[in-house]
C-alpha cells in the first residue's frame, strides 16, 4: 500500500540539491537559490568544481553569493565570499559532512568543531547566519576579490557594518566578457545591528573582530543589484527586511513548491525525487535581475526600467539549452516565458554578440540561437515583439560564424528561423532570401556528413566544436524532410541504428541529444522508446569528452539520484540536460525547436498531471508495462499514428495516453 507520509511530501522536500555536485559530474552546487534567482548562496570548498564546491571536499573556504549552474569552463561567480572562524582556530576549516543538509532555498552545515552555518536565498538577496558553540573572539571576513573566473575589479563603497557595500567586476563564463555587480550587506549579532566599521586590508579583504558568547548568532544579510549599491540595499530590505531566516526559507520553499507542482508524477519515491531534482535545476535559469523599483542594466551597461509587472532576464547559455530548457519553460512557465522573450529581443537591440559583452549586468555564457528560441516561443503563443525580433535576427545573420562544418549547420538553423518568422509575419521577401541562405549548407552536408569518412569518430575533427562528424551529421533537424529525401528513409534509419549500435552516440553533450527521437520521426517509435528508456534507467558507455575520446569509456547512469548524478564530464549546462530528462520522462520531446510540436514516446510514470495555466490540465497516462512494446498514442480519444502532437492541441488539456503491451518472449 502507498505510504501516506510519502504521499504528503511536497515536491521541494523531494529535491536533492547535492545531485551533480561531485567533481566533474554535472558541475552543480547545493547553494540556496530561489526560482530564477540571482543569489546562489552556498559553500566554497577546496578542492572545488566549476560551481565552487565539490561534494567530496572536506575543507571549507567560506560561503559566496553567486555561481553559474553547470556551465563549463572554470565556471563563473563566487562573488562576495564570507567566512567566520574563532581567532584561535588553526589550519583550514573542516566541514562536518554528516551535518550537511540542503533543500530548495536553504543550505546548512557545521564546521570547525561546531560552528553552524545556515543560509536562505530570495531572488536577489540572501541571509547567512552563524551560530557559535562556545565563547571566544571570532574573525568575520568578507572577500570581494574571490571569483571562479578573472576578478577584474573590486571596490568598497562603504565599510560600515550596517550597510557594507561593494562594487564588483569579474569575467563571465570562459572569461569571454565581463559582468558588473553591486552588493549591500548588513551585519547583525543576535538579531541587532552593531554599528561598527570593518577594516580593509591587503587585497581589499574586509575584517571584523567580535567577542562572542556561546550560542551567539552572527548574521550577514546581503542584497545584489545590477544597477548600484542603492539598488542592492533596496533589494535586501524589500526581499528580506527584518524577517527571520526561517521565514525567508519558508517563503522561498513555498515559491519552489508552487513552481514544481505544475507537474505531478505518480510513481516510486526515488524516481519522483530525481524528476523534481531535475525540474528544480531547469527553473534556476535564466536569472531575473530587475530591482524592486523596476531598474536593471542591459548588456551594454545602460540603466533601464521594466514596466510594471515585467521582469528582465539574463544569465544566458543558449547554445546549451535552446533545444530543451527554453521549450520546457514555454510549456510549464508561459507567463515567465513572455518576460524571457522580451529580454531576448532586447539582446538584439543592444547589438548582441554570440557570447557576452564587457558590460553584462550579471554572469552569463553565450547567446547563439536566440532567434530560434524566439521563433519557438512565438509559435507557441508566447507574447513576442516579432517584428523587432525579426529585425535583430536579420542583422545578426551577417555576424554568424560559417567557417567549420558545424558552424555552417548552426548558422543555417538560425537563417531558417529568420525565414520562418518572416513567413509568419507576411514578409515574403525576407522569407525567400533567408530560405535560400539556410539551404546553402546542403552541398557541404552531402560532401562532409552524408558518408562520414575515416575521421568521422574523431572529436573536433575539421574544426568541429565538442563533437564528431557522426554526431553533428544529425544536427539539421530543421531540414529533416530534405535529409530523409536525399539519403532515403530506409537508409537513414539504417544509419541511425548503426549510430547507436557502434557506440557513436554521445549523451554527455548537446549536439546529438535529439537523435533518439529521430527514430519515431522516421516511423520507428519502438526504437525511440527503447533508446530513451535505456538512457533514463540503465548504465551505458560514455566514451566522449568535450576534447576527445576516452581510452576506456565511463560506464554509468546518465542521470542518477546521487552526488555523482551525471556521466563523467557531463555538464547540466544551465538546465539543458535536466530539461532533456524531464521531457523524456514525460514522453514528449521538442524535436525541432521553432516548430510547435512534440514527438511522443512511453512516459516513465503511469500517470503525470500538468498544470498548463488558465485552468487547463493535461494528464499523461501509460497503459501497459514501461518496457513493453509501444502500441498506440491517443489524445482525447483521437489516434496519433505518427506519435506526434502539436503544442496547440496539448495546451487545450485533456488526456494523452500511450499504450504498451507485453513483448513476445
Description:
This protein is an alpha+beta fold. The chain has a domain of 245 residues: Beta-galactosidase, Chain A, domain 5 (Distorted Sandwich). The chain contains 20 helices and 30 strands. The strands form seven sheets. Strands 1, 2, 4, 5, 6, 7, 9, 10, 11, 12 and 15 form an eleven-stranded antiparallel beta sheet that branches. Strands 16-25-26-30-27-28 form a six-stranded mixed beta sheet, with helices on one face. It has a four-stranded antiparallel beta sheet with strand order 3-8-14-13, with no helix packed on it. Helix 7 packs across helix 8, helix 9 runs antiparallel to helix 10 and helix 10 packs antiparallel against helix 11. It is globular, with a radius of gyration of 25 Å.
Average pLDDT for all residues = 96
The CATH topology of one domain: Beta-galactosidase, Chain A, domain 5
CATH architecture of one domain: Distorted Sandwich
Specify the overall morphology.
globular
**Coarse structural class:** alpha+beta
Uncertain parts: 1-6
Number of strands: 30
- Helix count? 20
Portion of residues within helices:
25-40%
Gap between N and C termini, in Å?
A: 30 Å
Strand content is: 25-35%
Question: What is the highest CATH level, the class of one domain?
Answer: Mainly Beta
Sheet of most strands: 11 strands, antiparallel
Task: Give me the secondary-structure topology.
Blueprint: H1 4-7, H2 11-14, E1 42-46, E2 59-64, E3 81-86, E4 93-103, E5 106-111, E6 115-121, E7 125-131, E8 136-143, E9 151-158, E10 164-171, E11 178-189, E12 192-193, E13 199-200, E14 206-212, E15 217-225, H3 229-239, H4 245-260, E16 263-266, H5 269-282, E17 287-288, E18 295-297, E19 303-305, E20 313-314, H6 318-321, H7 325-332, H8 334-349, H9 370-379, H10 386-397, H11 405-424, H12 428-439, H13 442-448, H14 469-472, H15 480-487, H16 489-501, H17 518-521, H18 525-537, E21 540-544, E22 549-556, H19 576-586, E23 588-589, E24 597-600, E25 607-613, E26 616-623, E27 629-635, E28 638-639, E29 644-646, H20 647-651, E30 654-661
Helix pairs in contact: 5-19, 7-8, 8-9, 8-10, 9-10, 9-11, 10-11, 11-12, 15-16
